[in-house]
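User: Reviewer 2 asked us to show a designed sequence for the structure in our supplementary figure. I'm pasting the structure tokens here. Could you produce the per-position amino acids so we can include them in the response letter?
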């Protein structure tokens, strides 16, 4: 709707309730999409004023939007927490993932690949988020699960942040990394799963200019 000028540059979007009804989706799904659109530079939200369409046009790497949580935590610190948490969660998933989980993770990865092929960046990000959340959900450690849930918004933003500036070859590498994680989980190999997840997050951080 933004791209076909239904919503023009600088126009305020309808309320989330109205927009969710208009699109026939849930409000949580809409909020997730708006967060991704903001990271992609398509919209900008102003507290107390609403969400507005930005001026469209080619975006350069130097146009990378500010890190959303910069006043609270640096992106460097969030990537460091992410690599610690998610690598351990992948290790747990190697012992607890079911065949249904493995199949779901493969489908999420396929969705990422298909979405990237047609440059549907929102679908690409949502499939990526679903992949990581499915793995995190397999831990039997309730405190670890609660910790992940507590910082999920921060972790998810590190997945969105690099997407508008990701090179085609890097996305191919990222998808291959997902498949290596799946293979380690399918083989019930906790060390390999932990290592594959750590490598994946480290490479994602590098795409955002971060070394962890």
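Assistant: Here is a per-position design you can include in the supplement:
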């Amino acid at each position: 709707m933004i791209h076909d000028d239904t919503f023009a540059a600088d126009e305020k979007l309808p309320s989330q309730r109205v927009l969710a009804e208009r699109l026939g989706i849930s409000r949580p799904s809409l909020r997730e999409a708006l967060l991704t659109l903001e990271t992609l530079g398509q919209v900008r939200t102003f507290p107390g004023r609403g969400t507005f369409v930005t001026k469209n046009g080619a975006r350069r790497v130097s146009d990378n939007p500010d890190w959303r949580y910069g006043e609270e935590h640096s992106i460097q610190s969030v990537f460091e927490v992410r690599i610690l948490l998610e690598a351990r969660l992948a290790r747990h998933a190697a012992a607890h993932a079911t065949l249904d989980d493995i199949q779901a993770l493969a489908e999420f990865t396929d969705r990422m690949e298909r979405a990237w092929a047609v440059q549907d960046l929102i679908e690409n990000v949502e499939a990526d988020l679903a992949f990581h959340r499915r793995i995190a959900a397999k831990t039997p450690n309730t405190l670890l699960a609660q910790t992940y849930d507590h910082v999920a918004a921060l972790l998810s933003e590190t997945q969105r942040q690099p997407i508008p500036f990701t090179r085609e070859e890097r996305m191919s590498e990222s998808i291959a990394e997902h498949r290596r994680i799946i293979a380690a989980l399918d083989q019930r190999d906790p060390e390999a799963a932990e290592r594959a997840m750590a490598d994946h997050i480290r490479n994602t951080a590098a795409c955002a200019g971060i070394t962890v």
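For the response letter, you might also mention the following. Residues 57-64 have pLDDT under 50 and may be disordered. The longest helix spans residues 75-96.
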